[in-house]
Each structure stands twice: as C-alpha cells, then as structure tokens.
C-alpha cells in the first residue's frame, strides 16, 4: 500500500482512517490536514491516511474499486473502525462504501455536523444544528443493516447513524421519514420564535444608535481572544463578560454581543460569531444564517486571520466566500486583522497598520489599542460636531447627549445648557432641534 501512512496515536479514542480524492487542486494537502484536525475535534484518533488521484469521483463508490480495496485493507491493518471521507457523499455512495469496506463511513459533512452537535450550547444553536443534522439524515434513512458492528461508530449526531439503521420493512422506513419530517418542521417553528426574539433584541440595539462591529473569520483564528482582549481593556467588569476561547476547531457556536466603551463616550457593540471552515455544509450555513445576522447588520466587520498559519490565504478565501453565501453586503467596510503575529517564524513587526490591514496579536495590549483606534476611526468617521442649546426643562436631552456623545465643552446660560458634542448622525438627529447654527 504505497500511499498509506501510519500516523502517531496519542489519546485512546475511536480509530479512524481519513481518505480523499485529489482533483489536482493545490489546496488538497491542506484540506486533508484540516480533515485530520476535524477528525480530532470529533473525537477520533487518525491512524491512517489513504488518497486517490482522480479527476472525478466514481459514481457508485466515490473511490475507484482498487482504492476501495486499499482502504479496506488499511483500515483492517491499522484497526480503524471508521473511515472518514473528505467530501459529502451521496446516500448511495455512503451505503455502497460501507458495504464494501465493512466499516462505518463518515463524510466531511457528517463530521462537521457531529462536532457542531457536541459544541452547541444555546437553545438556538442546538436547534440550528439539529435541523441541519435531520436534513442530512433524511435521505440517508434505510431499511437494512449494513452487516457490520454498529456499535463501533463514532457518530454522535442527533439524526445520523442512530436513526439510520433501525426498523424493517417499508412501513417502518416511511414511519421514520415521517417522524423526521415532522420533527424538522417542529424545530423550524420553535427556531423561528427564537429568532424573532433575537431580532427584537437586535433591533432594540440598533434603536439605541450604538454602532455594531462583528468579528468574523476562520475557526481558531482568534476571534474570541480578540473580543476578550478588547473587553479586558475597555469594559466595565471585563471578567463577567469574557467569552470562551480555546485552541480547538469551533470553540464558539453562539453569537455573543458585548458593549465596548472606548474613552470619550465612544461605545460600540462587538459581536463574536461562529467560525468558518472549508467545505462548510450548506445545510449548516443555512441554519446559521440567523445567528450570523449580527454580522449581516454590522457597521464594520473585523476579519480575523491566523497569520501564523501558512494556509491563511486559503482560509481568507473561504471566509470571504462564506460571507458572500450568507448574503453579507459587500459594501460593509472590513478591517483585515492578521492575528498571532507573535507566532510568526519571520518575527513580523507588530502592531503594524497598513490601510485597512492590521498585523497584531490578540494577546498584546498595544495591538488591541491599535485595533480599537482603527475601529474608532471607521465607525465614528461620519460623525457630526455641533453646539446644542438645551432648555433646563429638557434634562433628558442633556442626559442623552452625555451618554452617547463625545463632549468637547459644556456651559450654562440663563435659559439652559450649552453643549458642544460629537456623535453619529442618527444620534444627532434626536437632538437636532436644539442645534445652533454652525459658525
Ligand atoms: N500565541 C497566540 N495565540 C493566540 C492568539 N490569538 C489567539 N490565540 C490562541 O488561538 C486559539 C484559538 O483562539 P480563539 O479565540 O478561541 O479562536 P476563535 O477564532 O474564536 O475560534 P472558534 O471559536 O473556534 O471559531 C486559542 O488557543 C488562543 O489562545 C495570539 O495572538 N497569539
Ligand atoms: Mg471563538
């Protein structure tokens, strides 16, 4: 078996063989490395790696027949109970492969769905993942058992293997399908309610005229670490508000929104969102559209990039494509934030600003201050400065200005308060009637 490599095993989990077809793409090696990372995140130990060079997959079994046999032998030799494939397989390809390899076959989509399934925390994220899992499972429901040990599989998905092989006879299958379809529509309704609540919260925030900034990017690039760093420097009680960060794929599935208070009353809302990965299942992207609405409605995006990973250009492309798929307006300004500069082999200087790009480290305060400056310059760019003459009878207007604006000067005369302040156009519109003619 010339193309089989034995890889080191560390923890005692389910042994898996990873496999893929290269269509001579440059990024193939990288997608296979990433598949290995995804497998680890899914609780597998990768014990072997089999690859085929082909222009297109074989219809019935995805791999060519010789390669299928090679995979079967390698799986046996390395004691792999699961074979993971680097693409989404059709239901029949999956069935045929399982029959011939006599192992559980998990495709890239199922693997990602499983990881999301174990990571989802909030009610909304759990429902979004379950819908994607059920939509994946529905066409894959089947009557007969594949004739191998069903217990060995690592699929933890809500709808996957657990539901796939039970029952006998067509009526059972039809019943299963009906149950699944009903469940999908039930969750969809519940999710819609949940999303409407979220939309209300989101529009309430917009109504407060505070600009919003969203952190987006590839998984593990450092979005959550960046958010925590900014909170540390600029939030009231930063420790209460920290989000979860960890060196693993898909640490964050839920969107968190936090208020950042820059000096001089310059507040904005910062949201941390789910990370992206190559070949993110469309069903999953669809399900997460609502969560990603925070990014969609943002005034500014911070595209966080793992600058210490050689594959960062590919990762950036995936992120840009995913943002497009979600329907994010191309006119939303973006800061490209090249993170983890401290880990660069070439010891790149940081922080360093170049137009809309920042080279930085989320673990470095000077870097985070630079990022905050860049954010401030962009979201407060279209602000208006004016002097307002507010009668003593409208204390609320004075309070409003003091709470949202950057104040240059406050004076009093016989009729009221004179404030010179800078704020967004939307905020200024609320107190426009008190504005004095500009000199
Ligand atoms: N050395 C170094 N490590 C960093 C830096 N920024 C983030 N990390 C580490 O990178 C790992 C991933 O960081 P996260 O902030 O969880 O990444 P994320 O983008 O939120 O990832 P997901 O939530 O999975 O999408 C963590 O172990 C961080 O400690 C950095 O500037 N330097
Ligand atoms: Mg995160």
Structural class, by secondary structure, is alpha/beta
The main sheet comes to: 7 strands, mixed
- Could you say which overall geometry the principal axes of the C-alpha atoms support? elongated
Number of helices: 15
Radius of gyration: 26 Å
Instruction: Give the tally of structural domains.
Output: 3
General description of the model:
This protein is an alpha/beta fold and 439 residues long. It has three domains: 5-120, Rossmann fold (3-Layer(aba) Sandwich); 210-379, P-loop containing nucleotide triphosphate hydrolases (Rossmann fold, 3-Layer(aba) Sandwich), CATH 3.40.50.300; 384-434. It is built from 15 helices and 15 strands. It has a seven-stranded mixed sheet with strand order 7-8-6-9-10-12-11. Residues 149-167 have low confidence and may be disordered.
């Amino acid at each position: 078996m010339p193309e089989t490599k034995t890889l080191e095993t560390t923890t005692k989990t389910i042994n898996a063989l990873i496999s893929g077809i290269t269509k001579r793409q440059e990024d193939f090696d990288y997608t296979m490395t990433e598949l290995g990372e995804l497998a680890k995140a899914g609780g597998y130990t990768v014990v072997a790696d089999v690859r085929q060079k082909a222009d297109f997959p074989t219809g019935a079994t995805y791999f060519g027949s010789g390669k299928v046999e090679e995979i079967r032998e390698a799986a046996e030799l390395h004691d792999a109970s699961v074979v993971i494939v680097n693409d989404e397989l059709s239901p029949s390809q999956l069935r045929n492969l399982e029959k011939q390899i006599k192992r559980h076959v998990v495709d890239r989509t199922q693997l990602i769905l499983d990881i999301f399934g174990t990571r989802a925390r909030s009610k909304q994220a759990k429902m979004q993942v379950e819908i994607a899992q059920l939509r994946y499972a529905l066409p894959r429901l089947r009557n007969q058992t594949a004739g191998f040990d069903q217990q060995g599989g690592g699929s933890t998905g809500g709808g996957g293997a657990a539901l796939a092989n039970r029952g006998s006879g067509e009526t059972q299958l039809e019943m299963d399908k009906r149950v699944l379809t009903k469940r999908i529509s039930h969750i969809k309704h519940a999710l819609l309610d949940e999303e409407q609540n979220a939309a209300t919260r989101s529009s309430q925030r917009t109504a407060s005229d505070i600009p919003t900034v969203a952190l987006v990017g590839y998984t593990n690039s450092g979005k959550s670490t960046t958010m925590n760093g900014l909170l540390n420097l600029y939030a009231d009680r930063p420790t209460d508000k920290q989000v979860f960060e960890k060196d693993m794929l898909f640490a964050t599935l839920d969107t968190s929104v936090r208020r950042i208070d820059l000096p001089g009353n310059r507040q904005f809302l910062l949201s941390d969102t789910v990370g992206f990965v190559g070949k993110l299942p469309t069903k999953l992207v669809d399900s997460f559209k609502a969560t990603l609405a925070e990014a969609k409605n943002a005034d500014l995006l911070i595209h966080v990039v793992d600058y210490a990973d050689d594959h960062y250009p590919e990762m950036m492309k995936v992120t840009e494509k995913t943002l497009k798929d979600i329907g994010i307006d191309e006119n939303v300004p973006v800061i490209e934030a090249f993170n983890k500069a401290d880990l660069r082999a070439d010891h790149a200087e940081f922080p360093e600003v170049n137009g809309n790009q920042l080279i930085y480290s989320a673990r470095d305060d000077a870097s985070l201050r630079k990022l905050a400056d860049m954010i401030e310059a962009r979201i407060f760019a279209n602000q208006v400065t004016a002097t307002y003459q507010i009668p003593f009878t409208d204390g609320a207007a004075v309070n409003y200005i003091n709470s949202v604006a950057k104040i240059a000067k406050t004076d009093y005369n016989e009729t009221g308060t004179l404030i010179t302040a800078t704020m967004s156009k939307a905020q200024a519109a609320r107190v426009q009637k008190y504005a004095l003619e500009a000199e």
